[in-house]
Amino acid sequence: MTYRVCFVCTGNICRSPMAEAVFHARVEEAGLGDLVEADSAGTGGWHEGEGADPRTVAVLAENGYGIDHTARQFQPSWFSRLDLVVALDAGHARALRRLAPTEQDAAKVRLLRSYDPAVDSGDLDVPDPYYGGVDGFEQCLEMVDAASTGLLAAVREQVEGRAA
User: Of 6, 9, 14, 140, which residue is the catalytic one?
Assistant: First the structure.
């Protein structure tokens, strides 16, 4: 059975597609590509149908990641098919929990940086780089990279638990 993860930010053109691309690469590197699927969405539909922000694409490419992305808005009905919904900041987590049809669905929502053991639990947001320069996108990638190792370990544990 496939384990499904969805990364969520505001408009689905910066942070969440970046997290999706990095996590997808980590999943492939770990040999879990047949067992884990990752995608992304936004809490709002402002950018639906658009590609990722060019700065996201450039920073990912400079660091060896590829992305083929079309923005979309998260739908409450998706909770039933998802195992984990990864929010990029606390505002997204609150919005997603409000959308969740059940308490079990709300419990699927986690903050990405909660998977980075080096981060103080009081500052788990990945700042929105949209209104800044490329340096904000580079900082975003650093945070996503750092959290992806812990996220992969947690997902691997869940996947292996299913196979047992």
Answer: 9
